[in-house]
Every structure is written in C-alpha cells, then in structure tokens.
Amino acid sequence: MAARARGSVREIQPVDVGDAGLAAAEAGAFLAALRSAAAAAGPGAAGDAVWAAVAAAGVLRPEHPHALHQLVYYSVYAGWDRAARGPPPYWFPSPIDCKQTNLGRLMEENGPKLLGSSYKDPISSFNHFYRFSVENQEVYWSMVLKQLAVKFQQEPKAILSTSDRSNKGGTWLQGAVLNIAECCLLPCPSLKRTDDSTAIIWRDEGLDDHPVNRMSLKELRSQVITVANALDTMFQKGDRIAIDMPMTCDAVIIYLAIVLGGFVVVSIADSFAPQEIGTRMAVSKAKAIFTQDFIIRGGKKVPLYSRVVQGTSSKAVVIPATGGYLGVTLRNGDVSWKDFLSRAAGRSSIYSAAYQSADAITNILFSSGTTGEPKAIPWTQLAPIRCAADTWAHLDVQPQDIGCWPTNLGWVMGPIILYSCFLNGATLALYHGSPLGRDFCKFVQDAGVTVLGSVPSLVKSWKAGNYAKGLDWTKIRVLGTTGEASDIDDNLWLTSRTSYKPIVECCGGTELASSYIQGSLLQPQAFGAFSGASMSTGFVILDEQGTPYQLRRHGDIVQRTVGGYYIVQGRADDTMNLGGIKTSSVEIERVCNRADEGLLETAAVSIKPAGGGPEHLAILAVLKDRSAQYDVNLLKSKFQRAIQKNLNPLFKVSYVKIVPQFPRTASNKLLRRVLRDQLKQELSNHSKL
C-alpha cells in the first residue's frame, strides 16, 4: 500500500517509513541516510536539488518496497509548483558520464570545430548542437553514418541532394547502393564486432531455470544464408513475402534472409484475426507467408496457422512452435519449415547479397492506429538507418549492449529493435513467450539486458504483480517506453528497480521509422515527459486554429511545459470539453490511477447527451483483483476528490463503471472510442446518465 506523502522529505518520520514497509531495524539508518542526503542539497534547496542529492546518495535501493520510493519521491516534490516550474525531474545527466554517451563523445570530438567558442560541454551545449543537426543535416548525418555498421557497395554521391525540386524533402543518400541486411551480418571492426560476437540471446518460455541460449554472429549469418538460398528456389527477386509469427530467433532469421535476398518483407502482427491477415496479404500482394503452427504464450497454445489458412490462400511455410515437429496438418501446397530448409541443400554457403539503391523497398508495415483501416507503409533501406541512428543518439545503444524490447515484427518496434541492435553492434535479446509475467522479468536479469524497452501497459503488469521482486535489474543502464502515454507512478516503480536509470520516452510513427520527440541522456528527465525533439528533426505544434507552433503535431495532442518539456496528452480524438475547458483523457487518467490502491488502470471518456448540452465525464476502471466487490459510488467520490485536488475543481465526474478489461488494438493501444460508443449505447438504453 502506498505511504502517505509528507509536506517535505524533512518531515518524514519513523512511523512513515514503517508504514511504507521498511523493517523497524532498518528504519533508523534509512532515515539518517535520507536526512543526510537531503541536507547535502543545502538549506532551502528546491525539490529537484534535494531529489538529485537523494538519488546520487543511493539511499533508495531496488529491493526497498515501492511504497517507500513513493513516500520519498512524493514528499520531496510535495511543494513543487508544476505550473511555474514544469514537471519535476527524477534523473540528471552526469558531467562525467555524459562524455561517454554516443552523442557526448561525438560532441566532444566535433563540438569545438562545429560550434566554435560557444561549445562548452555535452550538457550545456546540447540544445545548440541539436539546432546545428537540424540546420546542417548533411554534416550531422555524415558523422552519424560513420558510427553505424552501414557498409555501402557504392558510396552516396551526396548525403542530402536537393537538386530535384519536385522532391520537397530532398533525396537522401543519393546514388548509394547497399544491402541493409548484409550490414547487420558482417563483422565490423569499428564496433568491435567479430564473427564470435553474440548476436542473439534468447530463452523459450517454460525453461526459465535453464541458462539463456546464445547465437554468434557467424551462426546467425550462416542460418540467414540457408534461408535466403531456400527462398531463391521458390521466389523471384522483389517478391513480397509475409511474416506472421512471434518475434523469435527464427522470425529474425527469416526477416534478414528476405531482405538479404532482395525480396520484400510484409510484416503482419501475430495477434490478428483471419480477416485482418487476409486484408494485409491482399493489400501488399504478398506471394507467401511464414508462420507458426501455434503461439506459446503464458503456458497456453494459441492457434496461429489455422488463422492464416482462414485468412489467405497464399502458400504458407509453417514453423513448429516447439520441438522439431508440427502440431497441425498442412493444407495442400503449404510447406513445413524442415522441408523448406531442405531446399537449400547443396547450395553455396557463400551468398551474394542483392544490392539495391538506398530508396529500394525492403519492408511493408501497417499502421497501428485506431481507425480500423490498415494503411500500408513501405520502408526503404533508409528506414533502418534512421531508426538505428535514433537509438544511437537517444537510447545510447552501444557495442556490447544487450537490447530487449518485447514486441512483434508486425509492429514498428520489431524492425526498429532488430536494426537498432545489429547496426549499433549490440546483442538482441528475445524471449519466446509472454512478456507480462515473472518469467520474462527473470529473463531480463539472466540475459544481462542493459537497454530495456517496453510499453506502459507492460510496466503496469510488472508493477501490479511485483514481478521484479528479488531480481537484479541493475545492469540495465537505459530504459525506453513508447506506444501510449506513460503513468508517472508506474515509471517511478520501473526506474526504482534499476537504481534510478533514465527512461527515454519515445513518440513517433511507423512511417517515420523513428520518433519525432524523445528524451535524451544529455538532459534531465521527468516522468511521462519528453525533453525535446529527436536529433535533426524539425517540427511544429498546431494550435486549435491550425496555426503552427515550433513543433510537429503528428496527430497527437502535445503540451509544451515550463522547463522545456513536452507531454503527449494522447491522440487528437481523445480530447474532451468539460465545462468549456479542453482537457485530455490522459490527464484525467493520470490523476485517477492514483485515487485508490485497488486500481489497475482507468479510462476517461466524455459522453455527449443525446439531447445536446455539455459533455459529461465518464470514468471506467479495471481493478487489480478482478473478483473484488467495490462500491462504485465510493470510487466515484475518490475520483472526484482526486480530480478537484490535482486537476481542476470544475470537472465533475458523472458516471463510473468497473469493467474486467479495456478494449485495445492488436498493438495494445487503448480504444477509448470503443468505450465511448459502448457507453453511449448503454446510457441511451437507460435514457440518462
């Protein structure tokens, strides 16, 4: 249970520490260390200085109860004026460590030459260098390309050519010829990557007490070549070939083989229903599809091949989810994984990659929006370079890192984490199973993950089950999150498990192959906030009249705060007008999520009365204990008090409902419009709110 915050950290008493779950024998020493750290910040120090001192002193440890972390954090910032100072920071870049980051090293080497006498150090000169990257794209990208494992068969004539006036964005890497999959598979001395380097670490669900498995770069390349050789016996260069299966080692091998051979990957998420699979196969004109017989997740066997068969008549190559034998009978024309691989027998183990121009299409993905209509989004060979450069600059992915981001090749984060690891010389960590529980969290520990990505709903699940308890996550040095708006307290839990490492918030799009707004390890970070635009990215915010601010809108409601942070308030269609005041669902949910300890998550939507008039606020809630009986009126009053105290006293909660779960897209985004439509129907049946 969360401990009640005090008015300042100096007001915390032994009884508070005990209520937060710390044993009485430890309370005295803890309080002494806490007060000593707070005093080091100086008399009358502001909350950020106090928190920086407490965090630097290591007073709070990962094994401490979350309630203790809550007590200290919320007490430190109890008097913080967000309106005047912006969101409170929880992580601060080190003047020493900043020079060991990718971007910091680049700035130290080139800053004095590029910025002149105005260059000071990576932290104080970061904003200046960011502006330089936007205004001098060719210079910036020529430097960054040298940091990645990108090998051109034919060097580009220009980084950015603007000679073709019909192409407003210019032509990137004009004249370049390469194969981006080959770049992932070759040794790279500058990144200290050899054939013996570990390319992939993985573990199968259910084998959580076994050592993790490892695949070297040489082994990965050999298996990719085998698949590419087999593909050559069945398809013509340029054919589009789908992948619809979990992101396993086999899926990664197939993905790289398709690109290496000059074919085009069609990415389909493994959660789709037959009709959705069929639609994407038809839109992309895919000739075949790689899939599994089943998906093993959470100890259950979920049929996958049967959905593919219902969705498309295209040839399927079917991989067994476990063992060497399929658990299904194949229809005529489909091929088992074993028989497919046998087609490569007798072919050379040396493979000639299909070299193409930088603008050649290698992957067709689909948008993960909430409109229901899939939009095909082609990725050229530029896209992997862009996403790898993004993670190089913002997530600071380096050689020897072990990167893990549970996702699927059907969603943009699948190809992004694949290329971000391989083009930066890092190891890709894959868990063959559900990422929701303790077993995945143990894999993070056992694999030695150093860069861990997630989506907020995953973090909420880990926190609700306290699945990191007793595990060592301190090897993690950077955390990433994307997909939906973050919950402040969930992120407090997440970073506390790693001894307060930075969480880099990322917001972008499939068509961007990257983010347009992110956190940076050269800037202080605040929970649920972005510290700035992505490197080399210029953008604008549009106000309600469509007038541009200096930020790109991208369909999101973005608030620029005091202190220079940006907070994404959700999609443009998730706003509401309450009593003449515009607000977002995310703002209300952030407040309501902390109104009661029994809550797992909330969703806020507005309902327009059938007869017209002002919008009414409705809040739906999912409980941690789905079987618990709860007084809805009591919950409604708690929501009302929380909103009045922390958001706006004029906002009135009109309706509260407890539901077992929320509808989500296949990429786990909350479908508030579905909730809104369901409530409208339900309330219209009752003829009143």
UniProtKB/TrEMBL annotation:
SUPFAM superfamilies with a match to the protein in the record:
Acetyl-CoA synthetase-like
Where is the AMP-dependent synthetase/ligase domain positioned along the sequence? 192-560
User: What EC number(s) are associated with this protein in UniProt?
Assistant: 6.2.1.12
| InterPro entries found in the cross-reference section | ACAS_N, AMP-bd_C_sf, AMP-binding_CS, AMP-dep_synth/lig_dom, ANL_N_sf
Instruction: Identify which cofactors the protein needs according to its UniProt entry.
Output: Mg(2+)
Specify whether Transmembrane helix is a keyword of the entry.
yes
A GO BP entry is:
phenylpropanoid metabolic process
Which residue ranges does UniProt annotate as crossing the membrane? 252-273
The top EC class, named as a word, is ligase
Q: Do the record's keywords include Ribonucleoprotein? A: no
Q: Which reaction does it catalyse?
A: (E)-4-coumarate + ATP + H(+) = (E)-4-coumaroyl-AMP + diphosphate; (E)-4-coumaroyl-AMP + CoA = (E)-4-coumaroyl-CoA + AMP + H(+); (E)-4-coumarate + ATP + CoA = (E)-4-coumaroyl-CoA + AMP + diphosphate
Q: Which residue numbers delimit the Acetyl-coenzyme A synthetase N-terminal domain?
A: 128-184
Domain of life, per the record?
Eukaryota
Keywords, alphabetical: Membrane, Transmembrane, Transmembrane helix
Q: Listed GO molecular functions?
A: 4-coumarate-CoA ligase activity; trans-cinnamate-CoA ligase activity
- Protein family according to the UniProt entry: Belongs to the ATP-dependent AMP-binding enzyme family.
Q: Which PANTHER family match?
A: ACYL-ACTIVATING ENZYME 17, PEROXISOMAL-RELATED, ACYL-ACTIVATING ENZYME 18, PEROXISOMAL-RELATED
Question: What protein name is recorded for this chain?
Answer: 4-coumarate--CoA ligase
Species assigned in the record: Urochloa decumbens
